[in-house]
Design goal:
The structure is a single chain. By secondary structure, this protein is α+β, with helices and mostly antiparallel strands. It contains eleven helices and 18 strands. Strands 6, 7, 8, 10, 14, 15, 17 and 18 form an eight-stranded mixed β-sheet that branches. Strand 3 and strand 4 form a beta hairpin. Helix 6 runs antiparallel to helix 7. The chain starts with a strand and ends in a 6-residue tail after the last strand. It binds one DNA strand through helix 6.
DNA sequence: ATGTGC
C-alpha cells in the first residue's frame, strides 16, 4: 500500500496522488492557515480547493485556541444517507420528479409535531427547517451500482432493489448568523481555550450541529412523504465542525472544513451530480487528522462556470447527466455552477484516499434524480 | 454558504 500523504512543510501535508488536481491557490491557503497562532498540523484532502481566505477540504489541529472562521458559515453541514422502501424499478426519475413537486418552501403546519419531537432550541430560523438551501447542497435519489463488500451491505440492510436517498445540507441561516456575529466581535483572531467567549461559541456551534442534523432528517422525511415511501438513516456525518481531540497525546482542537470524520463510522463520499458516490469504511489515522475528503471538490470557480459551459451545453442538456440521471435545478446560474464539469472526477479523489490507506470501499452509488431547486417553476 | 446585494 503506497502512502500518498505528501509532506509540504512542517505541519502541512496533503492527501493526494499524482493524478489529483489541486489548485495552487488552495495550497497557498493551506500554508497560510498553518501559520495561525497555535496551529500544529493541517492536512489538505484530495478534494482541497480555494475558499474565502481558508481552503475547503481540509482539517486543522490547534492547541490553546480555536478558529471559528475555519469552520465557516455553514456550521454542521453534512451528508446523510437513507435507505428507502422505494423499489427502484417502479420509480424512474420522471415519476420521482413529478411526485416530489416543489420542496423549496418551509414545511407546513402538518409537520409541527414532527418538528417539536426533535426538541430543538428556539433559533429564529425555524422556517428553514426541512429546506435544502443553495450552493452545493442537494438531495439525491440513488441506486446501488457496484457492491464491493456484500456482507457489509447486507448488515446495513441495503440492496440493489431499493432506492437510497443522500441529503447534503446544513444549518442554513443559523450557522451564517453565528459566524457573522463572531467575526464582528473577534475578527479572525480565534478564541482562547477556557475563555467565556470560547464557551459561548461552542454552545452556539452545538446548536447549529443539532439544527443541521435535524434539517437533513426533515428533508429526508419530507421527500419520503411526497414519494409515498418510508426510510431510515444509515449514515449521518457533519463535515464542517469543531471538536476537542487528542493528537499524539496532545489535547487540542480539531477543525474540519469540508472534511468528514474518519472516526465515527461509515462515510459517504459523493461525487458531482453527474458522477458516482462511494460508501466507504474509513481508517482513522492521525496523519490525516482522523479525516477524509467530503466530496469531489470544485475544479472551477463558481463565477467562471457559465462562460465556460453556456457555449457547450444548454440548460436542457445540463438537466440530464452522463450517468442517465435527472437534475431538478430551475436556477440557471446554479445549474451551470454545479455542472459535473465544474468538479473533480470522484474516482481521482477516491484513488488518492485508497493509496493513502484511508478507506476501504464498500459500494458505489449512482444518481437517479437530484433535487436542487424548483425556483418558481414546479407545481 | 446566505429568510440573497447593487
Amino acid at each position: 500500500m503506497g502512502n500518498s500523504i505528501q509532506h509540504l512543510a512542517e505541519g502541512v501535508s496533503l492527501v493526494a496522488s499524482a493524478k489529483t488536481w489541486v489548485e495552487g491557490k488552495a495550497i497557498q491557503q493551506l500554508q497560510q492557515t498553518a501559520k495561525l497562532i497555535g496551529m500544529r498540523q493541517v492536512v489538505g484532502m484530495p478534494d482541497l480547493h480555494p475558499g474565502r481566505g481558508y481552503p475547503v477540504g481540509a482539517a486543522f489541529f490547534s492547541v490553546g485556541r480555536f478558529y471559528p472562521a475555519l469552520i465557516g458559515n455553514d456550521i454542521g453541514c453534512g451528508m446523510s444517507l437513507w435507505r428507502t422502501t422505494l423499489d427502484r424499478s417502479k420509480h424512474p426519475a420522471e415519476k420521482l420528479e413529478k411526485r416530489l413537486g416543489n420542496i423549496d418552501g418551509p414545511l407546513d403546519e402538518d409537520w409541527r409535531d414532527s418538528v417539536a419531537a426533535l426538541d430543538l432550541a428556539a433559533s429564529g430560523y425555524e422556517a428553514s427547517l426541512g429546506t435544502i438551501g443553495g450552493g452545493n447542497h442537494f438531495a439525491e435519489l440513488q441506486q446501488l451500482d457496484e457492491i464491493y463488500d456484500s456482507a457489509a451491505l447486507q448488515a446495513l440492510a441495503l440492496d440493489k432493489r431499493q432506492l437510497l436517498l443522500l441529503v447534503h445540507s446544513g444549518s442554513r441561516g443559523l450557522g451564517q448568523e453565528i459566524l457573522r456575529a463572531h467575526i464582528e466581535r473577534f475578527n479572525h483572531a480565534g478564541l482562547v481555550d477556557d475563555s467565556a467567549e470560547a464557551a459561548e461559541y461552542l454552545a452556539q456551534h452545538a446548536l447549529a450541529l443539532r439544527f443541521a442534523q435535524a434539517n437533513r432528517r426533515l428533508i429526508a422525511l419530507r421527500m419520503l412523504e411526497r414519494l409515498r415511501g418510508e426510510g431510515a438513516p444509515v449514515v449521518d456525518l457533519d463535515h464542517n465542525l469543531l471538536c476537542r481531540a487528542s493528537m499524539s497525546g496532545t489535547s487540542g482542537w480539531l477543525h474540519r472544513k469540508g472534511a468528514t470524520p474518519a472516526d465515527a463510522g461509515l462515510v459517504v463520499i459523493p461525487g458531482s451530480r453527474g458522477d458516482h458516490s462511494y460508501l466507504v469504511e474509513p481508517v482513522a489515522d492521525e496523519a490525516s487528522l482522523l479525516s477524509l475528503a467530503h466530496g469531489a471538490g470544485r475544479k472551477w470557480m463558481r463565477g467562471e462556470c457559465k462562460d465556460r459551459l453556456s457555449a457547450r451545453h444548454t440548460v436542457q442538456q445540463l438537466s440530464r447527466t452522463a450517468l442517465g440521471s435527472r437534475v431538478v435545478c430551475h436556477d440557471k446560474h446554479l445549474l451551470y455552477e454545479e455542472a459535473p464539469e465544474a468538479y473533480k472526477a470522484i474516482d481521482s479523489v477516491i484513488a488518492a484516499l485508497q493509496e493513502a490507506g484511508l478507506v476501504r470501499l464498500l459500494a458505489r452509488l449512482k444518481p437517479v434524480l437530484t433535487y436542487k431547486t424548483c425556483g418558481e417553476d414546479c407545481a
